[in-house]
Give the backbone structure.
Amino acid sequence: MKRIFFLTIILVFLTGGLFAQKFKNVALTPPMGWNSWNCFGPNINEKLIKEIADAMVSTGMRDAGYVYLVIDDGWQWKRDENGNIIPNPKKFPHGIKAVADYVHSKGLKFGIYSDAGRKTCQGLPGSRGYEYQDARTYAKWGVDYLKYDWCYHGKQNSEASYRLMRDALYKAGRPIVFSICEWGTTKPWLWAGDIGHLWRTTEDIQDCWDCVNEWGGMGWTLILDKQVGLEHYAGPGHWNDPDMLEVGNGGMTTEEYRAHFSMWCMLAAPLMAGNDIRHMSGKIREILTNKEVIAIDQDPLGKQGFKITDIGDYEIWVKELSGEEVAVALLNRGLIPINAVIQWKYILKRFNFQNNKYRIKDLWKGKIVGKTDKILKIKVKPHSVVLLRLIKTEKEGR
Ligand code: GLA
């Protein structure tokens, strides 16, 4: 009897451990998908989400890696007498499971949004006090991704609140990407590594180069500045999240969107498209689905890029890639073209790769522009990025 008891305990322990491992493994590279917020705000409904699912397939977004379709704030209505969360029947007349099933039928994964406080940022019911019940509901609906916000948290402790939901998701037994959206207010990079797969590092992104709004939202270059130093906290299964993409939402030029996308890839950021992909232009689609640029973001080594040069409007960012390769971004934040001159030794020494030889590929041009044994002279247009990949040709002297 005693033996059976101990064997059961060991079995429970082992399966629990295996499940925790499975849960951890859902984001070994930064998650990619689409989220409704940046383009539609709370104006979401079943028809829109199904059309987006169709467009994810027809535009090639799914095949480029964008597999999570996430419904942000605005889907909820109220709780029933048993505390179950009920979706807004006008927006989602067939419930959430029907939408999740449709999304799954397209070879995509389905994500949803809630909040660690009493209410969401739209004033709808949050999960405070209902964590285990909501986690069970999400698992029943087939949810694969949860974005968990931080409005109306009152005096709640952030780490405890997010750990509580993480435990509830574990208990519900369905592997789910857990996206912490606490805006960086209590430095989640210091405590969230084993709680969530990604954590927001700042206030909300705005569709502009460097604007700031009154409640703290900001353009992507200002968000970029706030990522300096955070590179030490990212890695497979746990990522800094500089917020969702604004590419294609209309507030910036194509060149500026290309720069925004390039730098998010350099940061190993989660790539959540935030535009109306049903009606995007060819140029925007080319940015979002550029395979070689996405490969910088999704590199299996999982290193976040960091800044090595900052001279006024000119910045150089580098990112170590697997196989002793390197990505280099030359960012011009100003309005005057920059004639960049790159001494490769200076960059390669950072990684102790100075004995390797590389060809240099300009990823947006799609062509080789030089080799690392010569200085590279290249023009960086105003408000734009030149994104380079050093492709290893041979190794010397080791
Ligand atoms: C917060 C989040 C946003 C979005 C909205 C929804 O502002 O940071 O990303 O989810 O709430 O209300």
